[in-house]
Amino acid sequence: MNLRLRGKLDQLFTAATGLSVVLLMLVLVAILGPMLYRGSNAVFFQDTVEFRKMQRDLFKRADDRSLETEIAEAEQFRQRAYAMLNEFRKGVDVEALSDQVRGIHRAFGEELRAKNVAGERYSELRSLTRDLRNNLETAFASQDKDEIRRITAEVLTHEGNPAFPGTSAEQLFTIARSFLATAEKVDLSRHHEYALALKEVEGLLFHTDDLPGLLGPRPDESQPLLVMLRYGATRWDQAQQLLDRFLWVREWVQAKPGKPLVMRRTPRADLFPETLWPLFTYVEQNIDKMLRPRFAAYWQFFLDDNVNSHYFGGVGPEILGTLFITVVGMLFVIPLGIVSAAYLVECAPDGQVIRIIRMCINTLAGVPSIVFGLFGLAFFVLFLFPLLGFEPKPCILAASMTLAVLTLPVMIRASEEAIRAVPRSYIEGSLALGSSQFHTFVTVTLPAALPGILTGIILSLSRIAGETAPILFTGAVSMGDIPKSILDPTRTLSYGSYDMAVGDRLAMMVPHNQYGMVVTLVMLILILNAVAIVLRTRVSRKLRGQ
Amino acid sequence: MRRVIVGMMMAVLAMGTAGYAETLQIDGSTTVGPIADAFAEYFKSVQPDLSITVKKTGSGDGAAALIDGRCDIATMSRFMKPEEFQKAVANNVLPVAHVVAMDGVCVAVHPSNPVKALTSAQIRDIYAGKITNWNQVGGSNTSIVVISRDTSSGTYETFESLVMKKTPMAAGVEYVNANPQAQARVRTTPGAIGYVGLGFQEGVKVLAIDGIMPTRQTIAKGSYPVSRPLFLFTNGYPKLGSVVHKFVSFYLTEKGQELVEAKGYVPLTNY
Amino acid sequence: MNSAEVNLTLEPAADTPRPLALMPGEDLRGYLLAHLGRAVLFLMTFSSVVAVLLILLFVIVRSLGFLSGYSLVEFLASRDWRPTAESPVFGSLAIIVGSLYVSFAALVFAVPLGLLAAVFLSDILSWRARNIVKPVVEILAAIPSVAYGFFAVLVLAPWMQKEFGFSTGTNALNASLILAIMALPTIISVAEDSISAIGRELREASYSCGATRMETMIQVVIPAAHSGIIAAVVLGMMRAIGETMVVWMASGNATQIPRPWWDVSQSIRTMTATIAGEMGEAPEGSQHRGALFAIGVLLLILTFGLNIVSEYFLTRAKKATGKT
């Protein structure tokens, strides 16, 4: 092979090696980049007045006066939208009317309970209102004007009942009357379609049974039980998505027979008669005045507890839990690791025993993490705890011990390398001055080996903080209080991330919180790593006498 | 020396439970877990000194925890198996089932799929590998990507016993761990078919099975062929008025119904 | 001569403990302390052995119930894994093959890349630049597996589906790529250590004969370090085989052997994912749980075997470079 070819190949080879490292860095960026970006959305985003309301109510942080004026201004714009909807609904939406009478029946029951009405009278009144409700619902659903007239007449005969004035049951009769009035005027055959479309629109604007809407519940409505339904869109990007769904209907239609369907977008306004069209243009043009978006830096994300299964709030307790477990785990693994390494280097006789110990340490390194979890449950929680007098339940202590066993091989290996690397001259010098072996080890070898031991600590730290499977059975919960002692279970970032990924559908609605938790975990580990690396460089500089 | 250490630990332990008057531990299924979460949050808002922990490691683990006495309530998306019952009785634990909600297993496909309904026989053949292309059941020419829940989930067992009926699933069936993942796979894969719980219909198209769509009414009445109850198991019937009793009977109240509906399940009550 | 005599005996410093120069009879306390100390150290070190033995015991005991009542041949050779069927079948061949398949595929990606990077780090990079690049490798190792799993499912899988038109994005390729990234730090650090440990003399001799850097590395240094490199590869493989969370989320979990064997776009299932996925729901003491523990035993045997192999090569490497 001639010289030039060899030279070229050599350059290619060098380039290839350089490229491999560049590829590694690119991979790192490719993995961390999207996640950091999506996770930063949990802290830096455009919030709306709903978000500030939520912060004020749930977390008690707001400048009350300015927030009140903001809410009032936003309400002014919203009132027009409510008015337009109400106008339309009066003639048409039997579903809402049904829901309304159901709500009245429920509210009446609560009022009776509040007044401590006696049992028999209570059930008598309630069954009466139940009948009224059921009759009205039949009337609403009917398309026969005669039937409607008959039923409403029958309902109105009960208006005179002395138990009703002053309670919410009165509204039943006003509703019956206004419904009769409009039913006389409207084409009943179409109101079913309008009603369905209207229900969807209101769901998008206010809230449905299980999903929040753009503006949140109306001011005169009763508060839903689920916290996340009490507020509208808290983030501007969420609001944009909801607005898009509000304005456009997406359907999958058959473009060509025998082929998959294609998606088609049509304006939602087309589903309604002209009278409701202004609503859509009004909302589209004024949504920013109704929601008042503003740039927010929600750094309390790292301190707040979560509300409604991570729909709102932050990951404070999870961070605390991860730190707890990491610290306690390190307390176990550092002494055990250093001592074992010291023994292996200093005192161990060469030969079979050493090889067996080493083999076992390496096997420990290869056991899958899920087996550790089960082992931790069976050994620490169910066997050791009763022996020591504790309750056999999962807790931080059990989780830390399990994680310590998991990372022991890493720590031992790194410490061993470090201790072995200490020049023999240091040790011999110390011994020659009359120090004992133990004293030498503590005062000479350990400090000299500190950089390598710190490497071991860094590696173990990352593993302990990031592992999920071992703490699944030994100490992690998906919901629970902040632990007050190491004998309580805790939430952690690692388990929380996994739980959100496989949990209920709430997690999919808040991808920013999901990513936020994972990114918090990665950042926490990276910060701990960085601190330890800085420490290590400083120690090794001191050792080299700089 | 040991006594000193144990003493210190006891002090720490006592510190641990000092702040809370009562504790409630709930363990079990990932399907019923969200309902337990919602109930627990409500209970905590009403009674702040109550300490509730919820774990979601699986129905089998929930049963094991109840049997070992490690939890007060076990949430399960399937009934206890005979072996579990036997172990429980051997441990002096008498499991009592409370049905907290109903769930329907919905068969879902990508929204671009023209197919609107299938018979249970067709679904069985798809999962058994006998039908491999959508054009064999009235769709377009796309190969079917079959997605199932993992074999240890209660959803899988419901699907298997009510739809597959002892026909084994094909080897090429993909398994995912949880409802959100099944839904994500079906939503992003044009040729996919999978089954999800009732609350996971966002972004996918639900098919009618044997002509019946899964809705609240059809599931509550049992006319939808693949519906199942969701359980809370306790050790014996809980003492009346205790916090465990309040928790397991919360589903009977209006507020309980509201929370069950908000999580996407079918409540048993009709307020 | 002065009347004052010079005292020539050297006293040890007052604050240091006296060394073991004395006989046990003269310094019983020191003797006992030293040996007791040694014994305590031994016990603490032995705890890791105890831990491993306990784990082995735990896993084996819980699988005995299953193994005694089920045909071993069927367990190892059948492809059907149906634990919840009416008459359960526990054939783990597809699962074992899945683990090995994904690990080997990961090595196919990781070994060339890792070797090249190790060469770069040990021979080509200056000392200062090394201090920047090494942390990058360490960061790759520090990222938790949950984060990798997230990335695999939410970013890589849809991208794969779109770009390559695969019918499914969670497949063997996805899992292998992520496992390769996770195994790379191990491979790079061990390989780099063993390449660096080859003394300068070998390299200088090769250069003085007129070889280029590429020829030196490929034909002289790497073969000289081959034991350490093989050990690095084996350690990387151990990491890949033992990984749970990522394969559970990213491999599709279909109990099948890809047909044809080179089609990495099909879903497979690994042993770790099987254990993690099914352990939660398998009732305590049932045959299903015993079968899962039996798979755990297989995993441990595999790990142990790989360990012995890597240990062998590591000792050979150490002997070759003169370090013991």
Q: How would you characterize this protein structure?
A:
The complex is a heterotrimer of chains A (546), B (271) and C (324). Chain A is mainly α and 546 residues long. Helices cover 69% and strands 4% of the residues of chain A. The mean pLDDT of chain A is 84. Chain B is an alpha/beta fold and 271 residues long. Chain B contains ten helices and eleven strands. In chain B, strands 1, 2, 3, 4, 6, 7, 8, 9 and 11 form a nine-stranded mixed beta sheet that branches. The radius of gyration of chain B is 21 Å and the shape is elongated. In chain C, helix 3 crosses helix 9 and helix 4 runs antiparallel to helix 6. Classes of the chains: A mainly alpha (546), B alpha/beta (271), C mainly alpha (324). Chains in contact: A-B, A-C, B-C. The interface between A and C is large, with 83 and 81 residues.
Oligomer: heterotrimer
State the end-to-end CA separation of chain B. Answer: 62 Å
Order of helices and strands of chain C: HHEEHHHHHHHHHH
Structural class of chain B: alpha/beta
Shape, per Cα inertia axes of chain C: flat
Q: Please give the number of β-strands of chain C.
A: 2
Characterize the largest beta sheet of chain B: strand count, sense, and whether it forms a barrel.
9 strands, mixed
Gyration radius of chain B, rounded: 21 Å
Helicity level of chain B, as a percent range? 25-40%
What is the count of β-strands of chain B?
A: 11
Radius of gyration of chain C, in Å, reads 27 Å
